Amino acid sequence: MELRAVAVLMVAAGIHSAWNLISKRGVDKQAFLWLAMLMTALLFAVPFTFLYTPIPPYAWVIIALSGVLESAYILLLGKAYQHGDLSLVYPIARGSAIMFVTLLAVLLLGEHVPWLGAVGILVIVCGMVVTNLTSLSVGALRAPIASLGTGPSRLALMTGLSTASYSLVDKVGVRYVPPLLYVYLIFAAGALFMMPYMLGMRRAAVAREWQANKWRIVLVSVMFITTYLLVLSVMATAQVSFVASVREVSVIFAALMGTLVLREPFGQQKVLGAALIFMGILCIGMA
Question: Which positions of the chain have pLDDT values less than 50?
Fold first, then answer.
């Protein structure tokens, strides 16, 4: 993977971890994230009409499928944040996404992962686990593994699976639709698919969330589309398994934000985790 591509994914990772931090502070996380997706569709409707080009029928199927998977991602992530801490949900969701996307890319897209790339992916996963340990001890290592049976952890794992699924669909989609247009259409599709549920069964929560956090919602909507455009610009030419792995440097950004914003301690385990993720990214870059 080229150095420029890695740099673009690092920027995307920073923005991704930032909007997750902002979203976690919402009152109702599902309502917050859906409103942000809806605002993305509304705010960028006019600019993207000028980018519209004829789209083949099979590409519309891909867009619709990605929109469904994006909807599942938003609903699962929102529910996971409603019941679990950022430090628990975020690393499990991102770490499991790497494993799921690599397996699916090999099985469904026929991607070949060189041994150095596979080592890089494994080292990144290890770095993410270490970063979120409470201490460098055997007991601290067992804690996140034992937590996988809890509700928030299961939701985080399902979120990771939805991330891996839409990543693979998007890898195919950008072959047929320009990335700028594609990203807008999948956000619009996702917002529409979720609308009956959010306005039919969760109307009161949506209204309260908008009143309480409208400016944060608008900010996150811009961050949504910026992150996605950066990732898709790289995914058009790079292996999806590598793209998904390098993006996980966002776990380090999330740890830094937790330290600076939430005043969480930045211990030895986070330093070691950061070093492992950096080494993993170097392995993928060389692969």
Answer: none
Instruction: Please report the pLDDT score of residue 264 as a whole number.
Output: 57
Q: What is the pTM of this model?
A: 0.77
Angle at 51 between CA 45 and CA 57, to 5 degrees: 95
Give the model's pLDDT for residue 135: 65
Do 255 and 74 touch, CB atoms closer than 8 A? no
Give me the pLDDT at residue 19, please.
86
Q: What is the pLDDT of residue 141?
A: 60
Residues ≥6 apart with Cβ < 8 Å to 211: none
